[in-house]
Structures are given as C-alpha cells and as structure tokens.
Amino acid sequence: MRKTILFLLIITISCISMQSQTSNPNHAWFEEARFGLFVHFGPYSVLGDGEWVMQNRPIKVQEYKKLQKFFNPQDFDAKTWVKTAKNAGMKYITFTSRHHDGFSNWDTKQSEWNIMNTPHFGRDIVKELADECHKEGIKLVLYYSLIDWSRNDYQYWTGGTGQGCGRTEKGDWNSYINFMKAQLTELLTNYGEIAGIWFDGDWDQHPKDSHTHATSNVNWHYQEIYDLIHSIQPNCMVSNNHHKEPIQGEDYQAFERDLPGENKNGFSDGQTISQHLPMETCETMNQTWGYNITDTNFKSTTEIIHYLVRAAGHGANLLLNVGPMPNGEIQPESIQRLQEVGNWTNKFGQTIYGTKSGLIKPQSWGAATQKGKTHYIHLFEQEGNQLTINIPNKIKSARWLNLNSPLNWTVDKKTGNVTFDLLNTQFDDIDSIIEIIVQ
Question: What are the tens digits of pLDDT across the range 164-183?
C-alpha cells in the first residue's frame, strides 16, 4: 500500500511539474517569430565606449551622473527604429529600459536618475517605442538589469562588478527588491501590452564558475518578482540571462552570444538546455552591445543570415543587437545590414518563421528546419558532391527553392537515407535551400 501511495505521489508531482512547464498558448508568437531586434541605449552611449564603460574605466557615481545633463538623443525616432526592425523581418524588439548603470529610460517615479530629467530631451523613450510597436504589430520586450552600479541598496559589496564606482554606504537589500518591484509595476501598468521582461545581471552575485543558483550571495526574490509580473500581465513572458538552468516562472531560455549547446564565448559553460521552454540566443552586430565609436568590426550580412538560420535549426530565436549613437540614430552600418537581411527574409522567411529544428542538428555546411510536412535544408557551402540525410517519411516532392537547377536524389529503402546529387550545382552566394515535402 505504501509503495502504491509513493508511486501515486511521484506521478502527481511529475504531472504538476509538467503542468508548470506547459506553455501558455498566448506565448505561441515567440516561437513563430524566430527573429528580434535587441537595442542597448542609455547615457553610456555618449562616451562611445560600450555599455560597461562605468565599470571598465571605472567612473564614480557622482561623475557618471553628470551624463544626465548632456544625454540628448534629439534624433531618436521610434517610427524609424520600429520600421527598421520590421523591414528586416524582425517580429519583436527587446529594449534596455534600464541597464547596469541604473539609468531608467522611462518616466519612473522611483528615481530621479531617468530620461525625463535630461534637460535637453525629457521624453519617455519606452512610451514612444511601446506606442509605435503596438501600432505596427511588433512585440515589445523590456530588458531590465538586476544590477545597479549607482544605488547604495544594491548589494555591491558582495557583487563581482561596480566595486570602483565610489560607493561606501551599505544600504538595505530589501529596499532594493521593493524598488525593482515598483519599477516593474510601472513598466507593466503604464505602457500597454508588454510581451516580455528580460532580466540580466544575476551572475554578478555568483562565483565566476558557478553553474548553480544555490551559490547566489543574495536572495533575488524571483518567485515574488515573477508572480508580480504574471499577476499584472498574465501573458508577459519572463526570461533571465543568468547562464544557468531555467527556474520556475521563466517562460523562455536565454543564451548569450552562443547557440544552444555551444560555449564559444564562455557564457554558456555548464548551461543545460531546457526540454520544456522556447529558446533565444542574443548576439551583437559588431563586438559591443552599446555604442562604441571605435568598434567597426561589423558582421557581414551573410554571417548574420547564417547565424539566424543556425539558430532556427536549433529551434531558437535570434535576438540581434544594435547600439544606437548618442543622438538616437542606429548606426548606418547596422541599417545597411538590416536592410540586406530584410531582402533575404522577405524572400525566404518562410524557411525560418514558425519552424522547429529539422531532421539533423546544424552542421558545418548549414542547417535544417521543419514546418509540418515541409523540410528545409539550408546549404551555406558545398562539402563534397552529395549530401545524405535520413528522412523517415516518403518524399512527395523535393526541389531547390532558390536555384534554377534540377535536383536529383536517390533513396536507400532499407535505411531511409536520401542522397542528393550536388555535383553540377551552382550554389547561391548566401544560402542554397532545398525544400522537401513528405507524405
């Protein structure tokens, strides 16, 4: 009897766990989207040395806050930003409402350190961006930093950053938690539908090589914060760039500068892939997130498209970043590349939007995506004169989607392996796509 009760208890707990991970049908837009625009913008843009300039130089709080007097993005135009994203084929924008320097890009009542107190600008960027996103059918996600290099009640004395910012007073951590809750309430109450909150900075309170949430120096009160968000806007998705396994209340998993399962940049060491949540990888257009006047190492249009396709091949979104100049304009190099990417997504977006990972994981030569009974094989380069893939279903049709060339293939009926002949094929400069429809 005890064994039966124990078994039923385990089954019940498992069902509860599975239910807790069940996706909200109102979140379906996220996995349909596959492509979003990340925007890092704030007073740090004035110094033209990236968004971490306050930490990296370092700059004392009282000196850094002088930037409020001459942060004047007079050429900021929400219509232009949203149009740029939309024309690139992006379906949502993730905007830095507040970065690690603590500056708020909206009309917050919780701090004087905000955009409304810039003497030459004084406009609510979040409101203007939200209004335009709602108008154009673009989802808006708000990045919100958990770190604050300017406040005394942020527990900087146990953190890994902000030690050189000149703070000596140790404030009350609970005060900081209440401050964040009040700000999040403003963002979720005053700006219409917010599609998501994207947290960053959890890692500041962990040992460098930590792979577990248990090593945190502080209690982030995540369940309270996540419950608050979902209580105000039930369909608002929560993500946390903590480089660890997702916890209860998080609605999609973030990967920083790496595709799921990779760790080329060191941020994903030990980060397991959730089996239940949608995924997103964020990447820079050049090398830095915020505007850096000397960073001209922009990725090519081809590199961006390949990264987008590889992300889709992993079943993940690509959140591609721009760092606008201090006047509020997106850099012309970024504009050009986004226009060129848009030309591609306008023609071939159906091979990534609404797809899931395909027949095989991304390879050196390309990636595969799938939508229902249609499979797309993206070939970035030719490796040999043939390509063999196992396709368990009988092929109804197969063709080159973007090449004016016949496609020949043979099927091994015993193994299900399909071999495509690539011998006399003239490949596309960016991506040669095979469309396969199965029965």
Answer: 999 999 999 999 999 999 99
